[in-house]
Each structure stands twice: as structure tokens, then as C-alpha cells.
Design brief:
The complex is a heterodimer of chains A (about 775) and B (about 250). Chain A contains 24 helices and 31 strands. By secondary structure, chain A is α/β, with parallel strands linked by helices. Classes of the chains: A alpha/beta (about 775), B alpha/beta (about 250).
Chain lengths: ~775, ~250
């Protein structure tokens, strides 16, 4: 290990990068990660001396990451940095051996000092050998006779509350047990999950006195309880609840119950016909229980999961050392059980999150959810569901009150309803969608554990027969596969003309300025181009190649269209030699164009700089021709100098058009120029706009965007209402060649028009 | 000043008022501490017409009941519908499936001429209602809950989800799993699934939830072997008025 190496984990770029820069300046070797997951990936390959961790991160928390990294590298030093300090965070940080829990914003000197001390102490410590996993103080496995198990349960019955599986009307339920004979260890699945004893359907969390605030006090249930006969998939569900309730803000009610519960699991050897836990990887449990039994005939093979479990055995029963035969019988029993599952996931479960991502908008969800009764059965029987509502209950004396939490669920109509009456998941489809995504994606990404353990309870409980996540997952996998099949090389019909330009004639060529010309073009056969404002075409000159140009004419002006070209390269150079009557090739239109629907009913602030006026002219014409659709329209135009002004006839016409407000400026004036002088941003503070009603459209050279955005943000225009058209090297125009790609986006397909909101996370954009 | 409370009965079996009286001794004392009951034919002899909160049991099934209800509404600051008949018409509305003269004849035979009757309706078909305490009969606990909410000046938290949710919370085995049928999936909860917990099925006495998926429920009943006719009958027991209105 290089003790000098530091890993900084923070999701806020500014914090992460500042810390990195400070520490780098001090001579350390610094790496950064944006999330716990990324940090874990990095630490899998490399050992760091010091970790600087933020607590609140998008997926797993920084503390969870620390816990996992510590398990691998016990010697690692850590410093926690948080903007949300709490006693719990500090306690957890201390428990994990963090040197300090710093509150954001942190002072560079302080952090640097701590890092220096950490590294000094590391250098003094002898290198720790990796296998630091503490050997348990108890034997991991044992065998007991079934008679001994009876003794064990009977002893428990004498001292503690016991819940376990009982038979009821031919089904099985978790319930209170008073006699060993009621206990069933060979069941398939219970109607209700055992998690209800850790997180009950209703529990009081606070008691208070309406007349005296000081008398309010939290309530927790610490009564000891043994939960017997928990199947591995339910144990895995409990481990998820542990993650949800214990990490970050340790929940006192859950923890009190968890710490006072003894969990005695049993391997599921006769699975329910609706179960699919092997597909979710949850048919086995290695942790999360005190004892786990496997029925191997006359005896139980026992896996001991905790000191508590070991003590329980020691105190109550005679254990037998397992023989190789016992171990073989346990393996056989488990293997045979595996053959009894009738359902399985038709896709690797690792692929589920991505698959669900791809299917987010699929019509499947609406069709699947149409018969949903919103009855809540699926979420009420689910062992991994843990959402709740909080309600106050005051006694009739109007003095004594309690605050209770009750199970709630995202499938219930009012779950996402807010005080104003708005319901953020108001239809069956969005609720159903949310539940399946929680089970297959969100929970996994948030807590690192599967959100569905394959118990099959919801599939049994759902009268509409739609609740099983397995069926939804398999349906989505099938849809994805069919989509794939449709696209195979054999079955797809190629677009023969994709790269073949259409023949077109130049009807007019006119100089705009020293280096710019406008070309009016007519497609052969009188075809309309059918462009939207903001779209572009590829101008194709045989022998020279192709280049993209924004269409400068609105589709409302039919018959021909114009493109304007600045002479800057070889193709543009040749284009400037063309005359009216010459033949050229045109491909397109391509790209998304301006979001015209979004503009309707709004005030428009159209800002064009330099050649940005080419595509903007198309939009301005369109707006003029549909003037009734918009509120106030303001056009701002900036050119370098009076001689570089483009489309001067149009500029004059806009100046005279009473229905629009037009302002222009030049960067540098000359003797004859009487108008505004200054860069385009100087015009923005001068116009009157209502930020709530205004959409700003910006087209110009790359440098212009940064400055214009700053001015627009000063005027409080929302990111969604700042629309930009970007220039990139769009070679093919059809999303193949890759030249125009910025981060994950293809400008020729996804753009060239974007809102600032879309571009906030696209680092290559501006 | 304690709010003055009155109880009135319209066409009903008066069982809901009896359930109000099922409060434990302590609760009853607390209630009497909190409110002044000025009119409650089933429990006391006092008959004051000066009250703030009126609880109405029963549906409206005779012309003469309409002005009487309107008069109560005019006096009460808060009007609460008590029980299935008042809230949704309840079993009284079963007669709406017949012609009124047929219904009279069926019940009173040759004496039918001595009575008048109109199609049964919930009280909100006649006057505006502020709060509903559902069920046949009402749950005493829910009556207390609503009274407490009124005293605290807040809206009582009555679930808008189906009985299934509470039935699962209670750890019940689904009636359908046992091969029988039930209206739980579309009926408003709040009863803690008392009928299923007691070994029966849901009859729909608390009325439908706000967004019941009736088509899906009917498909399910059919899947479990009920004919279309039987399905309608099942809904009609308590929900004839709602069914007919649709």
C-alpha cells in the first residue's frame, strides 16, 4: 500500500474537486469517486491509505462504503465529512474507527492536518496482514436430534415469547406459538412474512401529553422474542430491512426489536409452487440468523450464525459433531430442494436494473396494471416492503396521545398524495410501475441488496394475478428479446437511400457579407423538405463530400428553402463558387428541431449571435407566421461589427415588425454605426421579461453560451426554459458515425436542440 | 363550552346507535366529559333541539323524512352520517330494485295502501354531509375516532384503501384462497377486516373505495365461479344505491 494515497468520495463535484486540489497541492496522491459504489470498485483493485468520505451519497452511504472497505483493509484511516451532522452519524463513524467527523464546509488546513496525522500514524503502524476476518469464537456447525430441538423450543417457550409457523386452514402463518406441537418446520411458504415481528403493522413510536410537551417520550418494544422457522429468503429480506433501518439514521424501534429477537431459520426444502428464490439468489442465507436448521432426516444440521445462537445451543441441548455423512446429507437435501422450484427468471438477475431502465416507457406497464385493484395485498404480504404512514391518536380525554406508525404501501391510491390534493402517482400504472422498479432496481441500487427475495407471496395474494415481479421481469425480458430479434440483420429492412442525397437545384445565390452567402434550394420534382425550425440538412457536393447546415427558412414558407454558408473550409469554399441553376445534393432534414409545443403560449426571448442567426431565422419566420400562438416575442442579435451583420434585410424587417421587439448590437462599431455597441450579453439586462412565462432560445458560437446562460440565470429563467442549439461535427446525420457524440448523446439525433436542464449533466456540452 | 351532540334515527335498525353505546365505561365517561349529549332517543330522555353536532343513522325512504332531515341540517354545524344506511343507502336500498308499489305489497300485503314509500337513498342525497362513519354496523372504535377528530378540529383518518390491505395486516388467509368470494378488494377499509377475521367474507357494507376497479373485481368473481347475475346481487346487498346511480 502507498500510505500517501488518498481516496476522496463525494457526490458534489465542487467539494470533491476542491478537496482533491488542496491535498494534491500538499503533495499527496489523490483519487476521487462520486459514489460509494465507485469507491468500492476502486478499492477492489487498490489499497488507499486514507479515505475522505461524504455520508450522504446517491446510492450506498459513505458509512456503508467505509464499513465494506474496512472489512477488506482494516488498517485504512478515514475522515468523515458531512453537511448533515447527527449523533447517529458521529456514533457510527466512531464505531467504524473514523478519525474525525467533520462538518461541511471544511477548512483546508484542518483537513490537511488530519490527513497528515493519519498518514503519520499509518507509517508507524506495522502492516496488517489481509486476513483480518476474526475467526468466530463458536463452532460454525453442529448436529442436534429432533428431540433435542423440541427441548430447545420448550425451554424457549418457558422464558420468552415465541413466534413460529403454524398451520391454519390448510395454509401456513407466522403466529404466536404456545406448544411445540403447533410448530411446523416443513412448510412451503407462510401467508404473512416474519418481518412483521421486527416491523409490525402498527406500532407506537411516541407517547405525549397534549398539555405538557415535556412529557413526550419515544416508545420502543424491547421484549425478547424468538422467531422460529424463518426461511432463507425471509432472512435475506430481514437483512435488507437491517440495511434500510439501521444504516444512516438507525431506527430505534426496529433496532430494539431486532436486537431482542432470536432468529432461528430453517432451510426451505419444499418450496411453494409460486416461489423463485434461487433466481434471486436468496434460497440460501449465510448471515442474518442466530441458528439455521436443515432437516437431514432424524436430525437437524445446524449452522450457527452468532454467539447468541451458540450460547442458546450450549445452554439447552446436547450437540453432536457433524460427520462427513451429515454434511453430505445437508448438501443433498439442499440440492434436491433446488430441483423442486417450478418458476425461474429467464434472464440473469444482474441484468434486471438495465433491462428495467430500457423498458421504463414500455406500454407493457399500462396493459399489465389495467386489472390492478389497488388493494394493497401485494405490498402487505411482502417481506421486503417497509414503507409506513405516521398517524396521531389522542385519547377521548384529549390529553394523552400517541404517534403510531402503520404499514403503508406504494400500491395504495393515496400513498403519494400531498396536502394540496395533488397525487404524484395517481394512476394504477404509475403505482404498479413503481413497485416493480423498487423490487428489481431502486432497492438494489440504494441498498445493494435485492428488493425481491422470490418468496412468491404477492403472486399468491394477487387476485388479478399480476403482482409477481418474476412474471413482470420475464415479460420485460421477452419484450427486450423480441425487440432484439426484430433488429437482427436478417429481418430488418434497410433504408436503401439513407446515404444517397436527393437531387436539388440552386434557385438563388446571394452574398450576405464578405464571407457568407445564402443559397435558395429547390428539391427535384417539387418535393417539400418538410423541415422543422432548428433542423439541419447535409449539403452534398459530389467530389467534395458533405457538411451539415442549419435550415434558415421556416417550413411555413413553402416551395424552396435556404441555407447560409460561411466560407471557412474546402467544401464551403467550393460552395461559394456555385451559381443559380447548379445542381447539389441534399440529405435530411435531420435532428430534433426546436420544441415548438413548449413555446406555445409563452413569451419568447430569441438570442442569436453571429451565424447563429441562420437557424434562428427559420424560427423567427415560423413565429411570425403563427404569431397568435405566442405571447411577447423579443429578438436579440449580435454581430462582430457592422460589416459582419447577416440577413440585413431581415434585420430591418424585424426592426419594423410591430409584433416583435428587436434589438441588435455589434461588438465593435465603426464611424457609421449608430446602434448599440457591446457583446450580446449587454442586451439581456435591457429587456423586460417575466421569467415564469419566458422561454429563451440561444443560438451562437460556443463561447457565447456560457456568458448568455449566466445572464439568463440572473433573470431567473429556469433551466428547462433555456433552449440551445449546439454545433458539432455532424458527418452522417443519422446517428452512426460518432463524430457528433458528446458524452452519451448523439447531437445529430438527440439534438442539436437541447434545454439547459438536459445539458447540466452532459459535461462535454458547453 | 362543551359541544352539544344529538343522535337521530331515520330508516334503520338503530343498531349503529347501539354500537355507540357499546363504549367501555371509561370511554363513555370521557365522552360525556368532552361533549354534552342533548338528544339521543335510544339512550336518554332529554329532547333538546339546540345542538352543534348531529349524528344521523338510517337512510331516507319516506317523503316525510326529507323535511325532518333538512331541519336537522339547518340546526347542526356538523352533520355526521352514521352507518351504512345513512352513508350509502345500505340494505334499505335493496327495495330500489323493485317498483315501489310492488315493494309495499310484498311487505304490507293488503295494508299497503296505508303506507307511503320512496326509493331509499343515503342522506347525502338529500342534504350535505360533513363526515361519514361507515359500516353495518359502525365500529365503536371508529365512532370514537371521528368524535375525537371533531373535537380536535381535524379530519378523521379514514382509509381510502380496500379491506384487503387491513385483511393482510391481520394475517388472514384470503377468502378466495379458500375457494370462496368476497368484496374486500373494492370495499373501503377501516373495519380491520372484521368479517374475514371472524371467518366470513366481506359484504361491502362500508361502500366502495374512491377508485374501485369494478371491472377487475367482476372478472375475478367470475373467475371464481359466480355468474354475472350473482355478481350483481353480491354488489347490491349494500351498494344498490351506488350501482343504480352509475
Amino acid at each position: 500500500m502507498n500510505t500517501n494515497s488518498i481516496l476522496v468520495v463525494d457526490d458534489e463535484a465542487i467539494v470533491r474537486e476542491s478537496i482533491r486540489d488542496w491535498l494534491k497541492e500538499s503533495g499527496y496522491d489523490v483519487a476521487t469517486a462520486e459514489s460509494a459504489e465507485e469507491a468500492l470498485q476502486m478499492t477492489a483493485h487498490k489499497e488507499f491509505g486514507v479515505l475522505v468520505l461524504d455520508v450522504r451519497l446517491p446510492g450506498k452511504s459513505g458509512l456503508t462504503a467505509l464499513k465494506e472497505i474496512k472489512a477488506q483493509y482494516p488498517a485504512v484511516k478515514s475522515i468523515i465529512v458531512t453537511a448533515y451532522p447527527s449523533e447517529e452519524t458521529t456514533a457510527e463513524a466512531n464505531r467504524l474507527g473514523a478519525l474525525e467527523c467533520m462538518i461541511k464546509p471544511v477548512a483546508p488546513e484542518e483537513l490537511e492536518k488530519l490527513v497528515r496525522e493519519a498518514i503519520e500514524s499509518l507509517e508507524k503502524e506495522p502492516a496488517v496482514k489481509p486476513p483480518a476476518v476474526k475467526a468466530p469464537a463458536f463452532k460454525k456447525s453442529a448436529v442436534i436430534s429432533k428431540r433435542s430441538f423440541k427441548t430447545l423450543v420448550e425451554n424457549l417457550l418457558k422464558t420468552t415469547e415465541v413466534v413460529g409457523v403454524k398451520s391454519k386452514k390448510g395454509k401456513y402463518v407466522f403466529d404466536h406459538v404456545t406448544s411445540f406441537d403447533d410448530l411446523r418446520m416443513d412448510y412451503d411458504v407462510t401467508v404473512n412474512p416474519p418481518t412483521q415481528y421486527l416491523f409490525p403493522a402498527r406500532e407506537t413510536i411516541l407517547k405525549y401529553d397534549l398539555t405538557d410537551f415535556k412529557k413526550s417520550a419515544p416508545v420502543v418494544d424491547k421484549s425478547p422474542r424468538a422467531i422460529i422457522g424463518v426461511h432463507p429468503y425471509d432472512i435475506r429480506a430481514i437483512e435488507l430491512l437491517d440495511e434500510a433501518f439501521i444504516t444512516l439514521n438507525p431506527d430505534p424501534n426496529y433496532i430494539a426489536r431486532r436486537q431482542n429477537s432470536l432468529i432461528i431459520g430453517v432451510d426451505c426444502l419444499h418450496p411453494s409452487p409460486k416461489a423463485f428464490s434461487p433466481s434471486m439468489g436468496t434460497n440460501v442465507a449465510e448471515t442474518g440468523f442466530d441458528l439455521l436448521l436443515t432437516d437431514i432426516g432424524d436430525t437437524y444440521m445446524i449452522t450457527v450464525g452468532s454467539q447468541k445462537g451458540a450460547d442458546l445451543l450450549k445452554k439447552n441441548v446436547q450437540v453432536i459433531e457433524p460427520t462427513t455423512d451429515d454434511i453430505a446429507r445437508q448438501k443433498m437435501a439442499r440440492d434436491e430442494a433446488l430441483t423442486r422450484y417450478r418458476l425461474s427468471l429467464n434472464v440473469a438477475r444482474e441484468r434486471l436494473p438495465k433491462m428495467l431502465d430500457d423498458a421504463y416507457d414500455d406500454p407493457y406497464w399500462q396493459q399489465r396494471a389495467s386489472t390492478c385493484l389497488s388493494c394493497g395485498s401485494c405490498v402487505m404480504v411482502c417481506p421486503t416492503c417497509f414503507c409506513f404512514d405516521v398517524q396521531d391518536d389522542v385519547a377521548l380525554n384529549l390529553k394523552d396521545g400517541e404517534r403510531n406508525r402503520l404499514w403503508d404501501g406504494c400500491m395504495l391510491v393515496d400513498f403519494a398524495k400531498v396536502a394540496g390534493g395533488e397525487n404524484f402517482r395517481h394512476d394504477k400504472t404509475s403505482r404498479f410501475h413503481h413497485r416493480i422498479y423498487r423490487k428489481g432496481k431502486y432497492i438494489l441500487e440504494r441498498y445493494g441488496k435485492t428488493g425481491c427475495v422470490g418468496c412468491g407471496r404477492c403472486g399468491i395474494a394477487c387476485l388479478a394475478e399480476i403482482a409477481s415481479p418474476l412474471e413482470a421481469f420475464n415479460d420485460i425480458a421477452e419484450i427486450a428479446m423480441n425487440k432484439q430479434l426484430e433488429k437482427t440483420a436478417e429481418s430488418v429492412r434497410p433504408e436503401e437511400e439513407l446515404y444517397a442525397p436527393l437531387q436539388a437545384e440552386l434557385v438563388r445565390v446571394e452574398n450576405l457579407a464578405a464571407k457568407e452567402k445564402v443559397f435558395e434550394i429547390k428539391l427535384a420534382g417539387g418535393r417539400e423538405l418538410g423541415q422543422k425550425p432548428g433542423q439541419f440538412v447535409e449539403l452534398s457536393l459530389y467530389g467534395m463530400g458533405e457538411a451539415p447546415f442549419g435550415v434558415a427558412t421556416s417550413p411555413t414558407r413553402r416551395g424552396t428553402f435556404e441555407i447560409a454558408i460561411r466560407n471557412v473550409g474546402s467544401l464551403t469554399n467550393v460552395s461559394h463558387t456555385l451559381k443559380a441553376g447548379d445542381t447539389v445534393g441534399i440529405r435530411g432534414p435531420f435532428g430534433n428541431g426546436f420544441p415548438l409545443k413548449q413555446f406555445e403560449g409563452k413569451d419568447l426571448l430569441l438570442i442569436a449571435g453571429g451565424t447563429g442567426i441562420f437557424p434562428m431565422r427559420s424560427l423567427i419566420q415560423y413565429v411570425q407566421d403563427n404569431r397568435h400562438l405566442y405571447g411577447k416575442v423579443i429578438v436579440l442579435y449580435g454581430a462582430r461589427g457592422p460589416a459582419e451583420r447577416l440577413f440585413t434585410k431581415d434585420l430591418e424587417a424585424w426592426q419594423n415588425d410591430k409584433s416583435i421587439e428587436f434589438h441588435e448590437t455589434v461588438d465593435r462599431g465603426d464611424a457609421n454605426w449608430k446602434g448599440n455597441v457591446g457583446v450580446i450579453t449587454t442586451l439581456i439586462p435591457k429587456v423586460q421579461i417575466d421569467p415564469k412565462k419566458t422561454v429563451a432560445v440561444v443560438v451562437g458560437p460556443p463561447i457565447m453560451y456560457r456568458f448568455v446562460i449566466v445572464e439568463l440565470k440572473k433573470r431567473d429563467i429556469a433551466d428547462e426554459n433555456i433552449i440551445m442549439s449546439l454545433e458539432r461535427r455532424m458527418k452522417c446525420g443519422v446517428g452512426k458515425c460518432g463524430h457528433c457524440q458528446m458524452n452519451g448523446l448523439y447531437v445529430c439525433q438527440d439534438g442539436p436542440v437541447f434545454s439547459l436542464a438536459q445539458l447540466r449533466t452532459v459535461k462535454e456540452a458547453i | 363550552m362543551k359541544p352539544k351532540v344529538a343522535f337521530f334515527d331515520f330508516t334503520s335498525c338503530e343498531g349503529c346507535q347501539l354500537d355507540v353505546l357499546n363504549l367501555t365505561g371509561e370511554e363513555l365517561l370521557d365522552l360525556l366529559n368532552a361533549v354534552e349529549i342533548v338528544n339521543f332517543r335510544e339512550a336518554i330522555s332529554r329532547r333538546d333541539d339546540d345542538y352543534d353536532i348531529a349524528f344521523i343513522e338510517g337512510s331516507v325512504t319516506r317523503e316525510a323524512e326529507i323535511p325532518r332531515l333538512q331541519k336537522i341540517r339547518a340546526q347542526a354545524k356538523i352533520l355526521v352520517a352514521l352507518g351504512a344506511c345513512a352513508c350509502i343507502g345500505g340494505v334499505n336500498a335493496l327495495k330500489n330494485n323493485l317498483k315501489m308499489d310492488e315493494a309495499l305489497k310484498m311487505v304490507y300485503g293488503n295494508d299497503a295502501k296505508q303506507f307511503d314509500t320512496i326509493p331509499a337513498r343515503p342522506i347525502n342525497a338529500v342534504v350535505p354531509v360533513d363526515f361519514y362513519i361507515r359500516g353495518c354496523p359502525v365500529q365503536t372504535g371508529e365512532v370514537v375516532k371521528v368524535i375525537k377528530a371533531l373535537l380536535l378540529g381535524r379530519k378523521p383518518e379514514i382509509p381510502n384503501y380496500p379491506v384487503c390491505t387491513e385483511c393482510k395486516m391481520a394475517g388472514n388467509i384470503c377468502v378466495y384462497e379458500l375457494g370462496k368470494t368476497c368484496l374486500g378488494p373494492v370495499t373501503r377499509a377501516g373495519c380491520s377486516a372484521i368479517c374475514v377475521s371472524g371467518g366470513r367474507h366481506c359484504w361491502g357494507c362500508r361502500g366502495l373505495v374512491d377508485e374501485p376497479n369494478i371491472n377487475s373485481q367482476k372478472d375475478i368473481l367470475e373467475k371464481y365461479g359466480l355468474s354475472a347475475e350473482r355478481i350483481i346481487d353480491k354488489f347490491k346487498i349494500y351498494n344498490t344505491y351506488t350501482e343504480v346511480q352509475k
